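Following up on my earlier thread - several people asked me to post the actual chain instead of describing it. Fair enough. Here it is, all 115 residues.
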Amino acid sequence: PRSLFEDEIDDVKYEKGVFEDSDLSVEDLQEVVKRFKGVYKNNNLAFPEDVYEQLSLAIGAVFKGWMGARAVKYREVENIRNLLGTAVNVQAMVFGNMGDTSGTGVCFTRDPNDG
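Reply from S.P.:
Thanks for posting it. Predicted structure:
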């Protein structure tokens, strides 16, 4: 469950006295990875080490999320109708934790407020 991962990263941020993920150092993020792998182990799951398997699972999660309760509610609230599905773009990693002048985000092909 996602909340278990959020708990782990929140714990590391608390321990380091920071509020934003981007304030974590490389060493801090290595600790987060270690704890995330612990979440897998504690739930009798194996973390996928193969990058292609990770990519496949990430893409699958996007498509699976299309009919998730939050996604359905978002489309309902924003009056987004008659869509056939969603898409996935795979691109090089953006390092959004490199300081105050970098970041990551979501890109829309249309204004989500008025379609």
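The two ends are 32 Å apart (CA to CA). That should answer part of your original question.
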